[in-house]
Amino acid sequence: MNNDHLALFVRIANTYNISLAGRELDLSPAVASAYISKLEENLGVRLIHRTTRKVSLTEEGEAFLPHAQEVLATLETARASVGAGSLVPQGTLRITAPASFGRMHIVPALKSFMQKYPGLTIDCRFSDTIVDLVEGGFDIAIRDAALKDSNLIARKLASDNRIVCASPEYIAKNGLPKTPQDLVNHQTINLASIESWGFKSGKDTLNIKTKGTLRFDNGEAVRDACVQGLGITISSNWCSYKYLEDGSLVEVLKDFPLVANADIWAVYPSNRLLAPKVRAFIDHFIAYFGEVPYWEKQ
Question: Which UniProt keywords apply (predicted)?
């Protein structure tokens, strides 16, 4: 199987255009079309649908794509390990991240990252759905939950401290809860279906079932509703730090820490050698966020 054919197929999957993908690899439209035909002939399946107006992947093409990306990533890393080719990160780096964190903290950091590595193409997919890295063809995932899959390797990028907060408007109208148990007398705003809030109580965990009537599937929406005075909520500092700084939100129950604190992780498959582009991403973002992230300094 020819690696040039694989590289072209991966570019077509990103551009949905054979001619454009070919130009990116210095191939004429005729040669690019011939490359894809040869790849399909070798595999014995059709990988793409061709029409006069657009190109799309077949079901077999969708299934083959992550494997083609895996082969190219492994080849890139293998060549770099013996000093062959360029040690500078190149190619396409595919990233998946939670929607709110991606918009608020990944996008702003990409400017300096792309200036440092102009040979990289960045493909970001922001979603709160946990995706399969290998099946989805991703090089790296940003996650804010504990690592459960033993086939993945995780590197900590930053802390993710979470607090209970409310708006001054809500506090003025409803008063402050003084203990976690007081939350049952307050309106709460919950993320998705998380209605039980866990607080540290010595060596034990105190779980409070809240009575919130407002739920969202997005952290920024939860925060914004809290700013509007619609209830008390749990929020990550990275999501709410600017609102805490300007007084739009106030931390409550400071003496009762949550058990929900976590970290921000960069995750990649353990069966994939660490490609230069993945290493560069991890190193850049660890340095960008710093030992104490900027959202923890208010």
Answer: DNA-binding, Transcription, Transcription regulation
